[in-house]
Amino acid sequence: MNWLMNAGIGYLLGSIPSGVLVGRVATGRDVREYGSGKTGFTNTLRSAGIGAALIVITVDIAKGALPVIIGRFVFDDPWAVAVGAVAAVAGHNWPLFAGFRGGRGVATSFGAFVAMAPPAALGVLVLGMALLAATRYVSLTSMAATAAGFVAILALVIAGQLPAPYLLFAVAAGTAVEFSHLDNARRLLAGTEPKLGHGGVRRNGLQS
Prior knowledge:
Elements: H1 2-14, H2 18-27, H3 41-48, H4 50-73, H5 78-93, H6 106-116, H7 118-135, H8 138-158, H9 166-180, H10 182-190
Helix pairs in contact: 1-4, 1-5, 2-3, 2-4, 3-4, 4-5, 4-6, 5-6, 5-9, 6-7, 7-8, 8-9
């Protein structure tokens, strides 16, 4: 039952609506009423500023890392690690405490990745930062880094450096993150995707 218990822990941790809470404290507004309508770092930056966004990304990373740490050091079960991490991403994207309207799962997935394989996560982070600096498209960076993270976990599992159940996290979380960026991918192809720091206008029923 370890994996089931950690799934519950992961989902509840993931469901902590950091973007909503920090946004309300910082501005008195719901960040979901602005920009992309999501609750993560990028939309918080657009609608509430850099200070609020940094708090949000820190909490969101921790939400992904904690179930992995619990799975490893409390349950000592790689399935509990993988399922808890996936549940945290699901909780972030579809949070119980915020009407199931959350973020895209990037920072939470990264937090789990860091706790699973710190050197590989650092390498993907460097790659992502370089791509972001070159393009200033957070969405493109997120999609590319997620794909790179999947490849890294797959390679480490094949090499025997990570337990095989971690592939469950790589596939499930990676799919959730990439799927949540379909609208961004369409706008990138159309040339209408806002760059970092832009696009924070109030929503009018249309995705911005």
